[in-house]
Write a structure and sequence with these properties.
By secondary structure, the chain is an alpha+beta fold. It contains three helices and seven strands.
Length: 144
């Protein structure tokens, strides 16, 4: 398993930061390389919501189906995806920090296919850079 942890201190109220990462409509507005989102479930928010996200990764498009498996308002949201022979388990948590909000994202990548087990550790740096860009975009969006 590969784990990536990234945090940002954001000058915005906790509810705004949480709503930005927990609601796909807001997240897709905050992260400019998300180019399309399709809701796949009758549930539009919270546990059980499933959606398909398409984003630009370099010059290529990548599409991933995700499901919200935990949702505690102004605390944490967990998104899980099964893609490319790997279970991607991502948890965003928010904590008040004086007049700011600390946003932490922990992503666990558990490969279950042989090729993914070999490739994921090699891709960790690239994945971390992409997540850093997402977190920077969320910070900028929330601080506007």
């Amino acid at each position: 398993m590969t784990r990536t942890t990234i945090s940002r201190t954001i000058s915005a109220p906790i509810d705004k930061v949480f709503q930005t990462v927990a609601e796909i409509d807001n997240f897709s507005k905050a992260v400019p390389h998300i180019i399309n989102v399709d809701i796949l479930s009758d549930i539009k928010s919270g546990v059980g919501m499933r959606f398909r996200e398409t984003r630009l990764m370099g010059k290529r498009k990548a599409t991933t189906e995700l499901e919200v498996t935990e949702y505690e308002a102004n605390n944490r949201v967990r998104l899980v995806a099964d893609a490319g022979g790997t279970i991607w388990d991502t948890v965003f948590t928010v904590e008040p920090l004086d007049e700011q909000t600390n946003l932490t994202m922990v992503m666990d990548a558990k490969a279950y296919k042989f090729f993914s087990k070999l490739l994921n550790p090699l891709m960790k740096g690239m994945i971390q850079k992409a997540i850093e860009k997402d977190m920077d975009a969320v910070k900028s969006y929330c601080e506007q």
